[in-house]
Amino acid sequence: MDERKRDSIVAYLRRRMAEVGIELDDLAAAIAQDQIQYKSAKYRSATGETWSGEGEMPQWLKQAISAGQSVEHFGVGGAAQSAPAAGPKVDWRQDPFAGSPLATAHSPHIDAR
After folding, report:
1. Hey, which of 29, 42, 66, 92 would disulfide with 53, CB 3.0 to 4.6 Å?
2. Per-residue pLDDT, 19
3. Measured torsion, CA atoms of residues 71, 72, 74, 75, in degrees rounded to the nearest 10
């Protein structure tokens, strides 16, 4: 991004903050709170939703588990993020389509080999 464009965006943000009464201290406090929440997360979804592992399990994690995903898959710093670079290993025991018609469908391209 060039410097003029950056300066223009900064000026726009400052104008909007002044219009709604947001001070720089308010913004800094909100960013600090987000960073604390981000660091305390034990589980994180692909969309950035987090859960510390305390209290009731959030809906996004409940839905993923009911779809057949493991809780460990969403662990921050867990095995899902430290996968070996040699290539992903697939654990078919965790296949959410196991037992469904989709799992038993045969492709004519695969059978022709």
Report:
1. 42
2. 94
3. 130
